[in-house]
Write a structure and sequence with these properties.
The complex is a heterodimer of chains A (93) and B (462).
Chain A: H1 2-22, H2 30-41, H3 44-51, H4 58-86
Chain B: H1 8-28, H2 32-53, H3 61-81, H4 87-112, H5 118-146, H6 159-179, H7 184-202, H8 210-232, H9 235-258, H10 263-268, H11 280-284, H12 293-302, E1 305-310, H13 312-316, H14 320-332, E2 336-341, H15 351-358, E3 366-368, H16 369-375, E4 381-385, H17 394-397, E5 416-421, E6 441-445, H18 448-461
Parallel strand pairs in B: 1-2, 1-4, 2-3, 4-5, 5-6
Helix pairs in contact in B: 1-2, 1-9, 4-5, 4-7, 4-8, 5-6, 5-7, 5-8, 6-7, 8-9, 12-18, 14-18
Classes of the chains: A mainly alpha (93), B alpha/beta (462).
Chain lengths: 93, 462
Amino acid sequence: MDALVAAVTVFVLAIFVGFEIITKVPPTLHTPLMSGSNAISGITLIGAVISTRVDNDALATVLAVAAVAFAMINVVGGYLVTHRMLGMFKRKG
Amino acid sequence: MNTFLIDEAWVNLAYIVASVMFVLGLKGMAHPRTAVRGNLISAWGMLLAVVVTLLAEGLSYQWILVGALAGALVGAVVAVRVKMTQMPEMVALLNGFGGLASVLVAGTAFMITREPDVPMTVATGLSGLIGAVTFTGSLVAWGKLAGVIPGRQLGFRGLKAFNALLGLGVLGCVAWLTADPSSTAAYWIIVPASCVLGVTLTIPIGGADMPVVIALLNSYSGIAAAATGFVLMNNVLIIAGSLVGASGIILSQIMCKAMNRSLSHVLFGSLGPSAGGPSADQVYGGKVKSAGPEEVAMLFDTARRVLIVPGYGLAVSQAQHTVRDLTNLLEARGVKVEFGIHPVAGRMPGHMNVLLAEADIPYDRLKEMDEVNSEISQVDVCLVVGANDVVNPVARTDPQSPIAGMPIIDADKAHTVVVVKRSLSPGFAGIPNPLFAADNCLMMFGDGKKALVDLVAALKES
């Protein structure tokens, strides 16, 4: 139960931190913000990695490998496309 | 559940460092100057979190490699090839994959844990629910954006009741799972039922509301990741997921405010055909003035200050580069050119800004709605390209209108307005726009890009 309370604490505080920093993002960057946060939500990748175990049965292995692949699409696709987009934003020059 | 090759304290410390890097990365998004670095910090944080996770004992590295290579390849190819006009579709798909990954991770973790406790089971059920709704909801959103599914509101009588029953049923399954954590079957009922729910919740939402829906699904994908964090009791998942969840919620609120609608109205209300309101014939009858490129070029010849208001039509006709040419031409003649960006112009938050950035238009020329409205009376020519509802003065004047009270760009208050548009067809709100019939308005009918190419040519000749 202690672990759960600690996790809920982290959850609530992280949401507040999220609200504080995201409200400062200007509308110009809202699209890169979304693709960048897509990449961050690819953090499920570490959950997928940790579930890909040698002692898994066949079904669990298939599910875990699929999870790794989809999370990886988010991580790689998200960060790359965000980088590509942000590189286009230029000042007058 | 897992033991690590190094002391687990180090792993958890690395996770905290990674979480801080995500926060710093998002903080960098506060300004275009710092955003590139922010994104890189966030990416390094991700790498750190993954690398320490690989130190867990008993992992099947060859299978991880298979999945990672496949995902990285697909992700990289898509990220490099996607057109900027297709960013809404891309983000919708990424949202969906994030949700699906959460479903799979929670399901796998649940299967391989011998004696799951209550918090884990509840989290697994919720992860399956939110993840699956995100997955199919995003696929529907993608289909609507890509034109695979009709963009209008679809549905049948009793859809709301159906959704309510299905939603309750799924929550019942979560309760069942909690009461009897050994019932893996319950999880595999929750997932397909939630998949159906994702479709039936998204399909009645019309194309104009897509910015809200994408932002909301973005939030869901984060919340699903956070729920998966509760399944694995892993802080970095919880923190990263919450950050994304908060981000999506804020964006959907901004979009709702920009349409003067509540979130629940977007999700569950239906924008019926406007009853009453004047018909297109009453509004336009004989009052619409159409102009050719030469005529419009003459207007620009005498203008000192020009405001360009882009809408979704700009993206459809890929006119952003031609707009840039026009801007450069006008600026070379000493005209001040600015862009007025409505928050819901386009199909996702910030869509127009990315398109114009792609065409090398400096971001400091892109002004927000409030800023342009305060100076709009000094604008000589306001050029509206492929926008409709966001410049419809009815929002200010007619309290009965479906868009009443929606903040708009007051294009009608500029000295002269030129509207580039295919036809007089209504926008998503389905109502005629009196701006097009206003005394100070000229319509330039045609495809956005072609009309602007003609205009640039005419300007060069004059």
